[in-house]
Amino acid sequence: MDWSTEPSWKRKSKDNKKVYARFLNSVKPAELIRQLPDLHEEAFSKINCLDCANCCKNHSPTFKTTDIKRISKYLGLKESQFMDQYLSLDEDNDMVLKRTPCVFLNSDNSCKIYDVRPSDCARYPYTDEDVFVKRKQLTMANSMVCPAVHHILEKVISIL
Length: 160
Fold this sequence. Notes:
The protein is mainly alpha-helical. It has ten helices and two strands; from the N terminus they run ααααααββαααα.
């Protein structure tokens, strides 16, 4: 099954929201965290981000100071120019893109700044780190954006 293009995964994630919440609230964090690297590897052996790019189409990463410096240099812009052209402050006072989809998303779902992308992008969807367990609301929200998160939740519920 091609998880990234299977149309029902989003519906299943929405339908299973309460199941995911109960599971994430009841699972022993250390036990799940031990499972994550293998589950992450399995999910991404089946899912090609370039088939989907839902994250880039629907969300903005948070741009940290180090991200802004690195990307500005790569684009040949002053940091202030980069920020003025592409970023704004959100309600949490985080620097985010002014609009979605991401301005750096190519038509083939590849990234124009992939080699210097923000750390949020490099880490997304946090399926191989403790954020998956520690930020349960984020994991549940990501399950409706990223087929890998959905796949991992479905798999881990069946094995733990």
